Amino acid sequence: MVERVSEVAMALTAPTSAREIAERADCATAEVRPHLEWLVERGILEKATDDPMRFVRNEAYAEFRRITELTREFETPAAIADAITEYRERERDLAASFEAASPDAVVLADVESEDRDEAYDRLSEWRAVTRRLSELHDAKRRLESRHVD
């Protein structure tokens, strides 16, 4: 049960009640509450509201965890540099397709209506690529600090 509650907790992007978390984890609400409090104490979750009690994933913790996973995956600054190059190329391609400097500069209303679904998908990918690039750079800095001669 702890694993199910933790998995649900890490997927929370909006304030969510203990009852909703229990439903998603296929557990009783009373059983879930102590685990949610434990996750809050550890900084994995945050209490978004007190009345009613709602929880949300701690984004700083989630980012730390993603960066830690990247350092394990790539192991060396050189290996992660190759991934950064690949993501940077994809980011440039996506920027060129929108003729924009950043995903925030894109206005989907300016896209032809028949192309909007595809544009939305590419814009979502661009945002994900941009976020991943930031995480890769952070992971590279962490790896470089470990590999100082």
TrEMBL record:
Any Pfam family the entry gives: DUF7342
Source organism superkingdom: Archaea
InterPro entries to which the protein is assigned, alphabetical? DUF7342 (IPR055766), WH-like_DNA-bd_sf (IPR036388), WH_DNA-bd_sf (IPR036390)
Q: What is this protein called?
A: Putative ArsR family transcriptional regulator
